């Protein structure tokens, strides 16, 4: 008991210190309770505040705009189910387009797109600014004139005996069975789109209206002997901006190609591009002209 009481026995100096500490605590509590430290004379620069709020609002708008899905220019002939749905087309409208394309028909204008798909005027006005048709679609609707001219033999010639497709005239092309005035001018117009002409015979597939049979008859007598010189793109290092310079590759497809490349840790063969989402498989031979693997 004696030891227990010793914990509560203080010297005179200790008692004075405890008393002083209690007074100090109580004094500080009173100061905090009764004294108002808030300032009623806060000066606000209203002009600067308005300017600051406008900057905040503009940054919010920029962030909102960036979060919206972007639409890049595209050829409406290659719209898929997924692409059509993302553009706001109904299933029936997409089905009409796909049925039209299955018949090997091509849409060459915004007006024709609406006629085939029957999309509303409001939807058409939203998506049509992004339509990107080839330059050669605005061609004459007149039928080829029948010409009684000598036709080349359908048998294939040796390369030495074939004429250079990059130097052929319209009159020379018209000697091929199935090539009239319109088709010959269309081939030359398409060839002249590129400085230096064709890279390869396979590009004839891009000439509107030419059937595989007619193309075969052309290549039996003509071939590209002086190909256009191009700088090929390394598919395993290409950026989106690089890829969109290639025929038949738009921004959406370029993005898909790069995403697939990341998943595969690089392409081992150009033919692997056929497995890329929305890739135009029927154009693989033309696209491969512009690419190479390291």
TrEMBL record:
InterPro entries: Endo/Exo/Phosphatase_dom_1, RuvA_2-like. Gene3D superfamilies: Photosystem II 12 kDa extrinsic protein (1.10.150.320). Transmembrane segments: none annotated. This is Helix-hairpin-helix domain-containing protein.
